[in-house]
Amino acid sequence: MLSYRHAYHAGNHADVLKHCVWLCCLEYLQRKETGLRIIDTHSGAGLYSLTAEREKNREFDTGIGKIYNQPNLPEPLAHYLASVRESNRKTLALYPGSPLLTSHRLRPQDELWLHELHGADHALLRKNLQGKKRVYVKCEDGFAGLRALVPPPTRRALVLIDPSYEIKSDYQKVAEALTQASRRFASGCYLLWYPVVDRARIDTLEKQLRQSGIGGIQLFELGVRPDSPGHGMTASGMIVVNPPWTLWSQMEETLPWLAAELGENGQGYYRQETISE
Ligand code: SAM
Q1: How far apart are CA 159 and CA 146, in angstroms?
Q2: Which of these, 167, 158, 152, lies nearest to 40 by C-alpha position?
Q3: What ligand 1 atom has the least distance to the C-alpha of 145?
Q4: Beta-carbon neighbour count of residue 87 at 10 Å?
Q5: Could you report the per-residue pLDDT of 39-94, keeping only the tens digit for each?
Q6: For residue 220, what are the contacts with CB-CB under 8 A and spacing of at least 6?
Q7: Which residues belong to the annotated binding site?
Q8: Which residues belong to the signal peptide in this entry (predicted)?
Q9: Element holding 79 (H helix, E strand)
């Protein structure tokens, strides 16, 4: 039984990194006319209120809340913030998750496949995406969904693997899912999000990916304070297989800025690494 609800975390520092990297990849892949199959294996509810009573732990204050009104942003962040603004009026009241951010940018030749297993969030996701064409909302396991959806007929795919890691076996499952999907469809662009709660788990994940034989893997991590086992999420990262060639320099511009702005008491840091060539 799943208890994680993304509503409590929407817009936090991890979402800022995740959605900024995601939109950079989407924008690049849409420069080509050919249709894209976009797969979101763990979709959440799609749209979150930042003012509702139960969201009052205000995790968004660690992320979007700190940068929403900032001028002179690095270009990838300006692009991301423009996307968040599409769901808001003047003030920040709603946070669009990956399904909404993506569906706003869907072209007639693209399709979007969403997977959400939590019953209540699945119902919200359906409601939030209602009436959108070529958007398929599934109440199914996203790992199985991914296996069934690659390779796509157009031979172009963008995939987001974004579990909550509430079930610890997810750390193992994401490595297997990425390896299997890459074997079935090597040229897909795959994005995997990870939290740093226990550094040893991420070291293992990186090692598994280094040994997987998958080529073209880059890692982008943003930390708000040093590793501190047992004291919640201190950082998060995006692992990207077959990244657009533009992503590296976009993140060189963005990550230092984010580390300075979102770091707690000057303790922010980032990592930008090539995992495999
Ligand atoms: N991708 C979303 C975004 O960026 O806005 C956030 C997703 S949230 C981190 C993870 C979601 O995955 C939760 O809503 C959880 O209920 C759902 N989930 C957990 N296990 C799943 C599975 N095996 N298949 C599909 N959804 C799952």
Answers
A1: 8
A2: 158
A3: 24
A4: 17
A5: 999 999 999 999 876 556 789 999 999 999 999 999 999 999 999 999 998 899 99
A6: 17, 21, 237, 238, 240, 251, 255, 270, 271, 272
A7: 19, 42, 98, 116, 141-142, 162
A8: none
A9: helix 75-85
| CA 121 to ligand 1: nearest atom | 14
> Residue 57's pLDDT is what?
79
> Residue 96 burial (CB < 10 Å; 0-12/13-18/19+)?
buried
Residues labelled catalytic: 162
Token digits for 87? 């769901």
Q: Each residue of 139-190: pLDDT tens digit?
A: 999 999 999 999 999 999 999 999 999 999 999 999 999 999 999 999 999 9
Amino acid found at 233: M
Give the residue carrying structure tokens 């995790």: 59
Return the residue whose CA atom lies nearest to atom 12 of ligand 1. Answer: 42
CA distance 142 to 117: 8
